[in-house]
What does this fold into?
Amino acid sequence: MASPASIAKHPIHPMLIPFPIGLWVFSLVADIVYRVGGDPLWLGIAYWTMIGGTVGALVAAIPGLIDYLSLKDPKAVRIATVHLTLNLIIVGLFVVNLVLRTTGYPPTTVPLVLSAVGVGLLLFSGWFGWELIYRYGVAVTPEIEVRVRERRGAA
It folds into this structure.
């Protein structure tokens, strides 16, 4: 099933998700570096990469929601609902984390734990996202369309 949220038949959601994932993981790494005796600059890096990851996740959610609403297969819808729910929980954890940091909450273990749980849940969410792609063909051009295009190009 090709993605309705695409550019030149390339699905947008998978193009955008590396940004929040990478930024949130790096935010956790920056927190860990600070905790093991790094410069307080690492707290600022963790904060700003967390903001970037959260904004990136919200941007990636738009084409993801468009793809979600186009699903027809009930099993794919069920898996996509789990994926969507996990992602909402993850964004919520990082928003709470940002609020704590913005309001001057001391750099205790609470923000670090929120980041670690959020990144851990990303693994599960990603599992369900790849399940949608590889098992149910979500955002994948059907093979027959690919073959037709190849024949046209060869002719």
The chain has a mean pLDDT of 90. Residues 6-154 form one domain. The helical segments are 12-16, 18-35, 41-69, 74-102, 109-134, 143-154. The CA atoms of residues 83 and 125 lie 5 Å apart.
